[in-house]
Amino acid sequence: MSSESQPILGVPTNIITGFLGVGKTSAILNLMANKPENERWAVLVNEFGEIGVDGSLVQGQQSEEQQVFIREVPGGCMCCAAGLPMQIALNQLLNEAKPDRLLIEPTGLGHPKEVLQVLSTDHYRQVLSLQKNITLVDARKLADERYTQHDTFNQQIAIADTVVGNKLDLYQEGDTQKLEAYVAQVGRPNTKVVFAQHGVIPFAEFEGETTIHEHPPHHHHHASDKPLASDMPMPESGMLKATNSGEGFQSVGWRFSPEKVFDRRKLIPLLVELEVERMKAVFITGDGIYGYNLTPDGLQEVELDDCAESRIELIADSIDEHFEAKLLSCELA
Question: Of 112, 148, 152, 227, whose CB count within 10 A is highest?
Fold first, then answer.
């Protein structure tokens, strides 16, 4: 029997969750950098915005030649954004990659409990082996009621086998103890708490079966015929804009045709000055292809090997209505 027809069984699967800007994608990239060469890994990425940038950021640093397969589910919670997008994308990814490990990154504003419920259905019971759920938390955010009173933030901790206090290098005295106390209050009994910098988490933290079990949902999807902006054909103008809102935040994103090339020297100061909860982007510039990630801690830039087109997505309480004009002024003539 050929490997093509072999059933997919018992794929070790980790959910890696956490609120906006906490470093989930960095943690996944660090994991993949240490992937055994002989293994095939699959990554399912969910984004709140409709444009979808994370997939391009990851693919720009990993490739199928390295046996890493990536699929993106933009447009909100992957369980309910557009019918059954998670199941469709996951089934396609599993069939394409036939992976030795699956990593799932829900949006920072999504519902990890519902994701876990979907993965617990009969359909996936033999296909997936649910391993430890990892939740990244920035302990400094415990001083902000926008986080501690946000249902999603608390749900992310409640479904965790291990909570990772990320960005340890930026903590003040007492922050680690505050996180441990908060997890003891909100999390399950015996939830493990570890600390990390820059999303570097020992692989051992991902190994072993999860102790968190959720009953499969009876109904949890809201069918929609509206196509996502990430899937729509590019208009003749060479630019496509999309917005989304929910969970107390707004998102706005743009796609640009690959013929549009941007001035990196103008882009960087524009992005640095943004006042948003999170910004992610990939840009084709006159200097090459670059990925950007902005959080309240600053702007990160990384050179990428490739991307199909320029994309940018902002998530914030409110969006500067003049940003689009400023962004277009960065295009090279």
Answer: 112
* Residue 248 domain boundaries: 239-330
Mean of pLDDT values over 92-109: 92
Q: State the Cα–Cα distance between residues 138 and 130, nearest whole angstrom.
A: 25
Interval 224-258: pLDDT, tens: 455 667 778 899 999 999 988 877 888 899 999 99
- If asked whether residues 33 and 174 sit together in one domain, one would say yes
Identify the CATH number of the domain in which residue 300 sits: 3.30.1220.10
Q: Helix 175-186 crosses helix 151-158 at what angle (to 10 degrees)?
A: 80
pLDDT, residue 227, reads 64
Q: Which amino acid is at 139?
A: A
How many beta carbons lie within 10 A of that of residue 261, not counting itself?
A: 16
The mean per-residue pLDDT over the stretch 279-290 comes to 95
Cβ atoms of 167 and 26 closer than 8 Å? no
Instruction: Write down the pTM of the prediction.
Output: 0.83
Question: 28-37, 65-74, 199-208, 219-228: lowest mean pLDDT where?
Answer: 219-228
In a domain, 48, yes or no: yes
Number of domains in the chain: 2
**One domain, residues 84 and 198:** yes
Strands (E), 79-150: 101-105, 128-130, 134-137
Say what angle helices 112-119 and 85-97 make with each other, to 10 degrees: 60
